[in-house]
Amino acid sequence: QAVFLAAVRTAISGHPAAIHSSLRTALECASYALLVAKNRPETEILWENRHKDKDALRLHKKTFGPAVELAAVEVGKHQADLEEYLKALYNVCIDFGAHPNPRGLMPHIKKDRGEAESEYDFVTLYHWGQQVEIGMVFCIEVGIGLIWLLATATKNSDLLTPPSTYLNNLMDRKCDYAEEIVGHPIEYKKTMYEQVDPDPAE
pTM here? Predict the structure, then answer.
């Protein structure tokens, strides 16, 4: 919760480029919780013993290394498209700032007022506007993913079992907010996020 709220506060403060590391950590924390809850006490002991010795560390990394992918599979058992959704959120976090990748850096590089072509600035602080609002939308998007992960971990039947529509209604409200900002609805495709640029020849 603290890590997720830190991302929200970072976005509100005008630093949308800095939210993705915190959001990635939040997804990992919730995924760890789900994996520990699913297979306790074995995974709980494994998690606690991470630093016990080299063998324990190696086993911990093997078990929890793909935590988000494994947790996404569990959530997908409740609603098939959620597996792809959670994996996409995680990959977006990595590509847009949790790692120093081009998609996370290039949109914030602006030509400086100087005349030399080599003079550029990296924008770190934005006034309230589309950049900040898009950052807020992504925080909401990840927040919904976190609810799914934690609801699955705690077996919260009030959220997971029909006729509950709470999470779907929350998604609808997020889509309405996103449409207000960018002027058109979010188009969720079968492949929700592409890490590889499309071939211009296709």
Answer: 0.82
